[in-house]
Structure formats: structure tokens, C-alpha cells
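Title: Prediction job returns without error message
Component: structure pipeline
Severity: low
Priority: P3
Assignee: unassigned

Description:
Job completed but the reporter wants confirmation the result is attached to the right record. Sequence as submitted:
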Amino acid sequence: MERVAQFIPVSDGQFCADWEDAFPGTAVPERPQPPRRATAGSAGYDFRSPLDFHLDSGESIRIPTGYRARIAPGWVLMLFPRSGLGFKYRLQLNNTVGIVDADYFGARNEGHIFIKLTNAGDRPLSVKRGEAFAQGVFLPFGLTEDDDAGGERLGGFGSTGA
């Protein structure tokens, strides 16, 4: 299996600033462990929650994970809710599937990966600190023959302006 990426913590300053933005007035928690696969046959790297949270039907939460991903050219990290939570609770990412491009690593926000979730089901969902709530899968991607992209990412999330 080809090794194409590495999860790296964002700086403490970035994590604290992003935490304060997401959860004003709350104490900044210790980071959870880096995303890891649960088994040798797993494709997804589990993101663990840095806090206990509860979502009633229709409620959302935006979670700073504390990590970024250094990704080899030609690869992308795709984020999904953890399969069991999506199946049992209809937990969804607000952007349906998260896309983390390789050049996001060097963004102004250090490439800090956020995951925004909504409970689209009809029953409450509770997640404990340290519990897996989302997963990321690294996939290769191709280019069209006439591709001429030459722009450079400067900002953070959603900053390409396309």
C-alpha cells in the first residue's frame, strides 16, 4: 500500500484560536489522538471528537479537529460521517463530502481540518470525547487533458474562490 499522507497537529495557537471561534468562552480541550484506522483492512481514518456533544434532530456542530494533513500531489482526503452514525442517525456533513486538497496544508489557517455535522435524523445523537465521529479516506484524482490550473491557495477553508 502506498503511503501518501501524514496527519500533523496544527499549532497550539491555531487550535486555541479556532476553538474560541467555534465555542466562544469554553475551555480549550486537549487534542484527541490523530486520525487512525481501526483495522488493517479499513480505508477510513477515524477522526475522534475533542469534546462531548449532543445533537437533537436538525441541530449542527462545527468541530475543529486539531489536525491537518500533508498530502502527496495527485491525492485528496475525502471526509465522511462515520458509517454507523450516518446509518443509525442520518448524521451528515454539511458539505455532503468534505474535500481536503493537498495545497490546503499550507493555508493561512495551517490547513486546520474542520468537520461540520448535522443530525438529519429523527432522534437525538450523543458523542463522547475520544469517540470516532467522522472518517477520512485518501483517494487519487486525475486531471483533464486541457487542465491549465495555475492558481495558488492563500486562504483557508473555501478560499479558492472558484
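Comment from assignee: result matches the submitted record. Helices lie at 12-22, 83-89.
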